[in-house]
Amino acid sequence: MASNTEIPIHVNDHNNVDYFQRAQWLRAAVLGANDGLVSVTSLMMGVGSVKEDIKPMLLAGFAGLFAGACSMAIGEFVSVNTQRDIEMAQMKREKAMKIGGENNCNEEAEGEQLPNPVQAAFASALAFSVGAVLPLLAAAFIREHRLRLGVVVTVATSALVAFGAVGARVGRTPVVKSSFRVLVGGWVAMAITFGLTRLIGSIGLRM
What is the pTM of this model? Predict the structure, then answer.
């Protein structure tokens, strides 16, 4: 009777783990895109505060995109490899305590579900790049300086609200509250970068 109750519980737990992992992946993708958006927009706003030419602003944005995507990919690769090593070690400890072919089959199935470091690194870099490319596209074809800054802020604001809403849906939290929090955080980052860079430029450290 005990064996009959163990099997369905295991199946239910397996389904819950799969759903939880999918939700975590989607949430991580949204956060990565938000990070790319805020980082590159802030960087471009900072450069735009001291240089009116479009080229330095775009170059800074592309540099931020490449550096950020690489940093996210490497960080995720190392992190997931560490997580994988921990899970493998745990599986080996459990294997040493178990006896029987059925347990070994279960462990092989669990082994196939371990996170893939390369996949995680690629997904993280892609998510960052999706967010980072938005302000670049917004600024690419606008030559007038003030208008360019305004369009970049407008596009970033819209994207922040959208990312906040998607993140709220995934995390099942209040949409308005989550979107407002993400929006304010992005605005603060952009304002601080713009203000401090402009201050540094005004005291003689111009590009």
Answer: 0.76
